[in-house]
Write a structure and sequence with these properties.
With about 80 residues, this protein is an alpha+beta fold. Helix content is about 40%, strand content about 15%. The chain is elongated, with a radius of gyration of 19 Å.
C-alpha cells in the first residue's frame, strides 16, 4: 500500500494555477512577513500563520505592518461610522 501511495503521490500535487490572478508583487523573489509576536520582519513564511501578518512585497512594507494595520482599522471604523 505504501508503495502505491508513494508512486502516485507526485501526481496528486500537480495543480494548474494558470487561471488564478496573482498580486502585482507575485513575481518577487521573496515574500516578507511581520511577526507581531516578536516584532521582527521575516523573509519567507518562517513562523506560525497566527503570529504573522503579510505577505508584503518588500521588507520595508513588512516593517510598517503595525502602522498599515492601524491605518486600515481607522479607515474601516470611519466607513462604519459613516453608514
Amino acid at each position: 500500500m505504501a508503495e502505491c501511495v508513494a508512486r502516485h503521490a507526485p501526481s496528486l500535487l500537480t495543480v494548474d494555477l494558470s487561471g488564478i490572478d496573482k498580486p502585482e508583487y507575485a513575481g518577487a523573489m521573496t515574500d516578507w512577513w511581520y511577526n507581531h509576536k516578536t516584532g521582527e520582519v521575516e523573509e519567507g513564511a518562517q513562523s506560525l500563520g497566527s503570529d504573522r501578518d503579510g505577505p508584503y512585497a518588500t521588507r520595508e512594507d513588512a516593517a510598517r505592518a503595525p502602522e498599515i494595520a492601524a491605518e486600515r482599522a481607522r479607515k474601516w471604523a470611519a466607513e462604519e461610522n459613516s453608514d
